[in-house]
Amino acid sequence: MRISARADYAVRAAAELAAADNAVPVRAEALATAQGIPYRFLEGILSDLRRDGLVVSQRGAGGGYRLARLADQVTIADVIRAVDGPLVFVRGKRPSDLEYQGPAAPLLQVWVALRANVRTVLEQVTLADLVTDGLPTEIRDLVRTEDAWENA
């Protein structure tokens, strides 16, 4: 499974907004600089987040972006879906839209299980969890396993 640069940048920008005083809009340039995100790329990401109702924008001299909801009400899954669509695709399709024959038939269950596990992780973690370094215990336990940090 791969996390796109777009999704990674979106979550990092959203975390920056979550860490900011939500009463004061943050300029896109400040978000880009703080997280080392190419500004032009970030503009498109912020547009997607705004369109999905995760951020609001304010024009003018004091303008910028703010979260549209409290940070503890926005999950990493919400952010990724806003910029990349569904969390797990197989050949550009949702696993539930696939059909396999013969000995490959059980593969569909593997793809659905993968999607369920990805959702379990990404829907548990909120922007507030990131900002406060308060990841859920289940997530901390997963990264403590011996093979979690190995590339296999």
3D architecture notes:
The protein has helices at residues 5-19, 28-35, 39-51, 76-84, 107-122, 127-131, 137-143, and strands spanning 55-58, 64-67. It is mostly helical and 152 residues long. It has one domain (5-143): Winged helix-like DNA-binding domain superfamily/Winged helix DNA-binding domain (Arc Repressor Mutant, subunit A, Orthogonal Bundle), CATH 1.10.10.10. The radius of gyration is 18 Å and the shape is globular. The mean pLDDT is 93.
| CATH superfamily label | Winged helix-like DNA-binding domain superfamily/Winged helix DNA-binding domain
Order of helices and strands: HHHEEHHHH
User: Spans of 5+ residues with little confidence (pLDDT < 50)?
Assistant: none
Based on secondary structure, the structural category is mainly alpha
Q: State the CATH topology.
A: Arc Repressor Mutant, subunit A
Distance between the termini: 12 Å
Radius of gyration: 18 Å
Helix proportion of residues, in percent? 40-55%
Brief overview, please?
It comes from Myceligenerans xiligouense. One of its GO terms (cellular component) is cytosol. With 152 residues, this protein is mainly alpha-helical.
